[in-house]
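Lab notebook, bench 4. Continuing the backlog of folding jobs that were queued last week. Each job is logged with the same field layout so the records can be merged later without manual cleanup. Today's entry covers NAD(P)H-binding protein, a 209-residue chain. Filled in by technician R.K.

JOB TYPE: sequence-to-structure
TARGET: NAD(P)H-binding protein
LENGTH: 209
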Amino acid sequence: MQKKYQAIVIGSTGLVGKALVNQLCQDERYESITCLVRAPLANVDYHDPMQKIKALVIDFDALQDYQGYFSVDHVYCCLGTTLKSAGSKRAFRRVDFEFVHVCAQLARAQRAKSFVWISSLGADAKSKNFYLRVKGELENAILTMPQLSNAAAVRPPLLDGVRKEHRPGEAFALKVLKILGPIMKGPLEKYRPVRPAQVAHQMIGLQVF
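JOB STATUS: finished
OUTPUT FIELD FOLLOWS
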C-alpha cells in the first residue's frame, strides 16, 4: 500500500499558497493538509473534493504554541508581505524573516521530513536592497540550521497573478516584462514572470517522498 503523506501549509491565502493547497488537494500522495491562517479560508478559493483541508485560525505572534501541528511529513511556508503592506521595515522583517524562521525551527523540533519556503530571485544577505537582503539573511539562517532535514527555498521572479491588493509598481513591472518576454532568453530567462501554479509545483517537487 502506498504511503500517504501529511502536510502543513503556512500562508495558504496568498497567490502561491492558494495554488499550492489546490495542487496538494489533487495530489493522491497526500491524505491531509493543515492550513494555519489568520482568518477562515474562503471555500470558493479551494477545490477539495476529498476534504483534505484542515484550517486552523491562529495567532502568528504565538506560533510556538502550535508546535504540535508541525509533526507532519512536509512543511510548506508561503508567508510573505511587502514593505507597503507591512508599514515599516521592522514589521516586514517580522513576517518575512522571523515568522518563517520560527516555522523552520518548529519543523526541526517536530522532525518533519522536509521544509520548503518561498524566497526571492536575487536574495542576497549582502544586498543593498532591504527586501533582497532580508530574504538572503533568511536563507542563510535556515540553510545553516543544524538538524533541519531537507530544507529548500524556491526563488521565484515576479509573480504573474491577480492579487486582492493593488500594487501599481508591480503591475507596471509585470506589464513591461510581459512585453519583453519573447526576447528574454539565456541569462535573462530567469527574470520572466511566472504563474503561482509554477512556483507551487516547484515547491512540491522539492519535498522528500
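OBSERVATION: The CA atoms of residues 116 and 205 lie 10 Å apart.
SIGNED: R.K.
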